């Protein structure tokens, strides 16, 4: 998860807007590593101050395990894959107790030296692999 996404959500929050259908499908990454949120038809006047934190929890679960739990509980099912003391699990856990996105920016996961150039490299690899039909093994 990138600081770019949180900064975009903070911008919307500052304008008293929320994104009602935020999911991985609405977050786009271009070839230069720039992240954009797609689908402005989902914008509406903010009704809940923690909307972005809740959405980021769902997105993080999707990135970590491929799905969001049906019962509304935040967490990952396969703890063999994710150490409980990892920065990713700590960030996911924070989405259950922080009440604004500025607090998420202080999480150790987002203190790592993430750069657009690294995203650019990952996007390039994904493009190469997908064009050749590569599939990641199921763990």
Describe the structure.
The chain is mainly alpha-helical and 139 residues long. The protein has one domain: Transferase(Phosphotransferase), domain 1 (Orthogonal Bundle), CATH 1.10.510. It is built from five helices and four strands, in the order αββββαααα. The strands form two sheets. The chain has a two-stranded antiparallel sheet. A two-stranded antiparallel ribbon has the order 2-3. The longest helix is centred in the last third of the chain and has 16 residues, at 116-131. It is globular and about 45 Å long. InterPro entries: Kinase-like_dom_sf (IPR011009). It comes from Bionectria ochroleuca (Gliocladium roseum). This is Protein kinase domain-containing protein.
- Could you state the order of secondary-structure elements as H and E? HEEEEHHHH
Biggest sheet, open or closed, and with what strands and sense? 2 strands, antiparallel
Share in helix? 25-40%
In the CATH hierarchy, the third-tier topology is known as: Transferase(Phosphotransferase), domain 1
Quick take:
With 139 residues, this protein is mainly alpha-helical.
